[in-house]
Structures are given as C-alpha cells and as structure tokens.
Design a protein that fits this description.
Number of strands: 16
CATH superfamily of the largest domain: Fructose-1,6-Bisphosphatase, subunit A, domain 1
Strand content: 25-35%
Structural class: alpha+beta
CATH architecture of the largest domain: 2-Layer Sandwich
CATH class of the largest domain: Alpha Beta
Radius of gyration: 17 Å
Length: about 270
C-alpha cells in the first residue's frame, strides 16, 4: 500500500466510523430490543443499521466485503482489497448498557490486515492506523506498551470467557487480569498502550480481530494466532483458533507462558 493509498484508506475508515457513530447514537445502550441468532449471539437493529452505513460508505468497485451482519459473498476471495468489518463488536455489552463495544473496520490486502479503525461511541474513543502511518488515539500519535516482563502487566480478558471460567487458570498469574467486552476494543487499547496484553484462546472470526490486529501491528506491537503464524484474513472459512497480542517486548515471555495453548503441531 503506497503512502497515498494508505492516507486515502484511513480517510475512508475515519469517515465510515463517524457515520457509524452517528447511527449508534440514535439508539440507547441497555434499552434496545434484542434478537438472537443461531448460537445465541445477540443482534440488534443497531447492528444492521451500522452494517448498512458502513457498506455504503466504504465499499467501492473491485473491493471485497466480509461482515458479521452480511451474508457472505465468496467473490471476496478473488479480490486483492477486502473490507473486514464488525458493525458492533460487543453487542452483549451494548445490550446491557456496558460501555465496552465498538465499530470495527479493517482493510485487508492480499490477506494481510494493513489498516484499521475502531470507534467506541460510549467512551468517545477513536483509534485509527495503518502499517504506513502508525496509530493515533483520538487524533494523537500513540504506541503500544514498552513493558519488558509479565510481572505486573495488565491483561484484558474476555468478559464472557471469564464468566465461563476459562480464565481460572490465570487467577494466580504474575499479571493482572481485567475482564472486558469486545475483542476489537481490547486489541485497540493494546495498540495504544492502555493495556499491555490481550489474548483469546477460543475461536474468533476475522471480523472480530482484523481491525484490532491491524492497529496493534501498525503501532509496532506483536500479533500471532495459536498456530504460531501471522494472522491471515479473507479466507473462505473466516474462523480462527484464537489470537495473542501484546507490546513488542513481551512476545517471548508471553508465548512461553501460553505454550500449552499453542497448536501442538507447531510447537
């Protein structure tokens, strides 16, 4: 991606996030009618309305589209540039009135997340970045955590995973764990250094993580799947096994700490 195309992509992402923010502000978190999809995932009118405005704002001829709220169109597999979006990541928190949800947008080029943006309208946070430009937090340049060891590190954990007991194994860990909704939001906060680490050891979809991963990588942080590989997107099956993200100096110690959860074929 050239510097010019990077800037133009970021401008489109920013415009789409602001349009999405305006749509979400028409709804009241904690007081919105909710439906449930197969698998018991909640969905609201806000999810669908944001998906519609994102598609209208972002998508141009020759580009592909992958969204949680749009029926998958496999013509995206033939496209070099693909938008991977989650109109409202953290719908459970949105429904409950917890301010831990965001709009998540990633630009993927040849399978690589190269630019991303998230907006949390409840906290008035906007994180935007690309591999060419670095990352900004509410318009100001930012960077990931420069911490060099796990002792005392802040790890953002999935609120639902903690509730299911999947983080009990880390209760006596050397790091501090904070439950939070929206994996995209957690990744965004790691990209800005407002947390040191986040990881999920359960499957996620590309639309959950692509934008946040693009931000962490664009800021100079570390991102890896549980198979010890870089995150590749725009695959036919958009489900990934899990994801690890942290500041640049925590990689080795964190991977050693999580070694039992990495794919056995790649140890």
């Amino acid at each position: 991606m050239t510097s010019h195309s990077s800037q133009e992509t970021l401008e489109r992402i920013h415009a789409a996030l602001e349009a999405a923010r305006a749509v979400i502000n028409r709804f009241t978190p904690g007081a919105i009618e909710t439906e449930y999809k197969v698998g018991h995932d909640p969905v609201t009118e806000a999810d669908r309305a944001v998906d519609d405005i994102l598609r209208k704002t972002l998508l141009r001829p020759g580009e592909g589209w992958l969204s949680e709220e749009t029926v998958d169109d496999f013509t995206r597999l033939d496209k070099e540039r693909v938008w991977v979006v989650d109109p409202l990541d953290g719908t459970r928190e949105f429904v409950q009135g917890i301010p831990e949800f965001c709009v998540s947008i990633a630009m993927v080029e040849n399978g690589i997340p190269v630019a991303g943006g998230i907006c949390n309208p409840a906290t008035d946070e906007l994180i935007l970045g690309s591999r060419k430009s670095g990352v900004t937090y509410n318009g100001k340049p930012t960077q990931p955590s420069q911490r060099r060891n796990l002792q005392g590190a802040l790890v953002l954990a999935s609120r639902s995973e903690v509730k299911r007991g999947e983080w009990k194994q880390f209760e006596s860990a050397e790091f501090t764990t904070r439950p939070m909704g929206s994996v995209a939001y957690k990744l965004g906060l790691v990209s800005t250094g407002r947390a040191d680490i986040t990881f999920t050891l359960v499957p996620k979809h590309e639309w959950d993580v692509a934008a946040g991963a693009a931000l962490v990588l664009s800021a100079g942080g570390f991102v890896q799947t549980l198979e010890n590989t870089d995150l590749k997107c725009n695959r036919k099956n958009p489900l990934i096994s899990g994801l690890i993200a942290c500041g640049p100096y925590l990689q080795a110690e964190l991977l050693a700490r999580l070694s039992d959860h990495l794919h056995p074929a790649d140890r």
